[in-house]
Write a structure and sequence with these properties.
Blueprint: E1 2-5, H1 23-31, E2 34-37, H2 39-42, E3 52-55, H3 59-63, E4 68-71, H4 78-95, E5 99-102, E6 113-115, E7 123-125, H5 129-136, E8 140-143, H6 148-151
Parallel strand pairs: 1-2, 1-5, 5-8
Antiparallel strand pairs: 3-4, 6-7
Helix pairs in contact: 4-5
Amino acid sequence: MIFVSACLAGVKTRYDGTDRLDEKIRALVVSGAAIPLCPEVLGGRGIPRETIEITGGDGAQVLSGRARVVDQKGGDHTKEILEGVDEFIKAAKAMGVAAVILKTKSPTCGHKKIYDGTFTGKLIDGSGVLSAALEKESIKIYTEENCGELLK
């Protein structure tokens, strides 16, 4: 069993109420091989919602309390993101999930590249909060860009 970012499976969970459907990933869900989850929704964030980015670092720094997850108006959403990540990790452990497929660039799910916290579209090296937490748990992370390796 694997978990996938819900938006990649066609669930309209993105901040703007849309999805980022990837047919290969949706096929995994339909076949019963994957479960779609959205850590932001698990943490209580609504749909639609303000866009967020990490300021002061990346997901690892958010986990250690040295960075925050904020919206463009400065509203702090760190607590909701951490709660959603915690629920995602608990579910993954309970189900013995060894791999996930996450949405790239997201402040929550992004893996290896995320937006820089200025809301200008600039990318930096680093992972989102969920990716950082999954790395600590030694759960293998794929994105829609490299999940072909997992689907072979």
